[in-house]
Each structure stands twice: as C-alpha cells, then as structure tokens.
Amino acid sequence: MVSLALPKGSYLERPVLGRFAAAGLEVRRPSERSYRARIDYDGDIEVAFHKAREIPLAVEKGIFDFGVTGADWIEETGAKVELVETSGCVPPWRLVLAVPADHPAVDVAGLPPGVRVATGFPKIARQFFQSVPLPVRIVPSFGATEAKVPELADAVIEADGPDSAFDEHDLRVIATLRTCVPQLVASPAAWRETGKRAAIQKVARLLAAVDGGAAHVLLTVRTSSRNLPSVAGSMPERSWRAGTGLTEGLVVVQGLAARRGLAETIGGILAAGALDVIESHVGKDVTP
C-alpha cells in the first residue's frame, strides 16, 4: 500500500480529481469536505488532502509516498523530491508580478527602490529581484494576496491561474517570473523501495494515458492491397495492420496520430492512395 497527497482548496483540486477519475483511479471520500480518502487500485492507495504548498516538503520527508502539487511550490519550498510526471490536467499557469492598473510602471524597471511586494512565494520573489537587481520589501502573504494592495503592499507576486483575482482588484501584470505546471512527485525513500516505486509508476502511466489520449486520435484507413506499401509508409509511427475488408483486395490499417498536424497527416495518407480515413476519439493512450 502507498500513500498519496492531493491538493485541497485550490484550482488544482477539481482538475486533479477529474484526471484521476478519467484514468480509472477514482478518489473515494465520504464528502467533498473530507480530508481522507482512498483509491481502490493495486492494494488500495491511502489519500490525504493538503494545501498544495504543504505537499512538496511532506513528500520529501516521507510522510506521503507521492503527491501532486505545482512546480512553483516545489521551487519555493526547495523540496528534494523525485519528479515522476508532469500533468496536463490544467493548462500551465504563470507566476507574475502585478501592480495597480493606474501605476506608471510598464515593467519591473519602472518600480521604485523599496517598493512593497506582497507574495506567498518570498523565496522566488527575492531571487527575482536580486537578479534585476532592485531592492524591495517582501511582504509575506498567506492568502488573498491581491487584496493586500494598496494598504499593505504596492505590488504583488502571485500565480495567475484560473482562480486569480487580478481583474477584481484592478491589478495589471507587468512581468512573468515563471510558467508552472502540476507535477506528480515521489519521496526519495519511496522511490528507492522497489515495490513502492513500481506502484507509483503504475499510477503515473495511467495518468499519462489520459493526457496521451487527449493528444491523439485513432485513424482507421481503408486502402487497396496494391497501394498498401505507400499508404503504410505515410501512416504515423504507432500504426498496425488491422485486417482485410469485406471486399476482396481491400486492407484496413489503424494508427495513433497526434492532433497537432492532423490535417497534414491525413492529407499525406490520402495522397499515398488511401480510399478513406476515419478519425476516432482515444480515451486513453497507455504505453509501456
């Protein structure tokens, strides 16, 4: 049995749960307010919900065998964890520097020395301003960072994600510090243990299959036996011969094609002599 930490109370929570469910790893908990749950897979997985910022260090210490958090929190905490997989459950988000809409600054160079910057990412913020360089006053924030302006701060560094409140607080982005993604991470101790590492990798493969399915389509292609060599040569790398048609002289081949560049792929297959191409949805794309 392995233990898993999932993010609670952030824009990651619902997409992460949706991705686990799509992978066949439904997280079962008594209610949405519960902080304890389980996944009925591979001898059960014990699940606990915590703030995304808390998960990296908890996983590093081995309190949990693995977890899902943001790349920004891994960097901010400096946690020494194994990066198992990057998740596509939500689009990448930015860690940004924002000022009031009527502020004269159009970039960081326009900020005066000693400006007060509220942030939940003080380590990343200090590194950023040291690299500029610009002396600032970091105002640690533990929530509602955007609301710290103007009384407690002159600017903010915060994640510009799906639930950001920059518009509501009339803030304007003037710099991007990082682009971040969700990460599946494992504790060094669990990663060294053969059984736990194998269990974590199984979960990672199922989660990756969801992203792979979204990024690919299944092409079913009919061609004549005479044109099969040229059609086969134009098929995506991950293709196979599916069988023969009901009409003598016809062959059916299938392949997984990336959505990106799909029109060009299909065009090439038809130009090679295929009779027709049917595109189908791929729920999952599981690879060894």
Automatic annotation (TrEMBL):
Entry's Gene Ontology molecular function annotations: ATP phosphoribosyltransferase activity
Protein's UniProt keywords contain Glycosyltransferase: yes
Biological or metabolic pathway of the protein: Amino-acid biosynthesis; L-histidine biosynthesis; L-histidine from 5-phospho-alpha-D-ribose 1-diphosphate: step 1/9
Lipoprotein in keyword set: no
Main location: cytoplasm
Domain ATP phosphoribosyltransferase catalytic: 51-207
Gene3D superfamilies in alphabetical order: Periplasmic binding protein-like II
Annotated EC: 2.4.2.17
InterPro entries attached to this UniProt entry: ATP_PRibTrfase_cat (IPR013820), ATP_PRibTrfase_HisG (IPR001348)
Keyword annotations of the record: Amino-acid biosynthesis, ATP-binding, Cytoplasm, Glycosyltransferase, Histidine biosynthesis, Nucleotide-binding, Transferase
Top enzyme class: transferase
Subcellular location: Cytoplasm
Catalytic reactions of this protein: 1-(5-phospho-beta-D-ribosyl)-ATP + diphosphate = 5-phospho-alpha-D-ribose 1-diphosphate + ATP
Free-text function comment from the UniProt entry: Catalyzes the condensation of ATP and 5-phosphoribose 1-diphosphate to form N'-(5'-phosphoribosyl)-ATP (PR-ATP). Has a crucial role in the pathway because the rate of histidine biosynthesis seems to be controlled primarily by regulation of HisG enzymatic activity.
Name this polypeptide is given: ATP phosphoribosyltransferase
Organism per entry: Nonomuraea spiralis
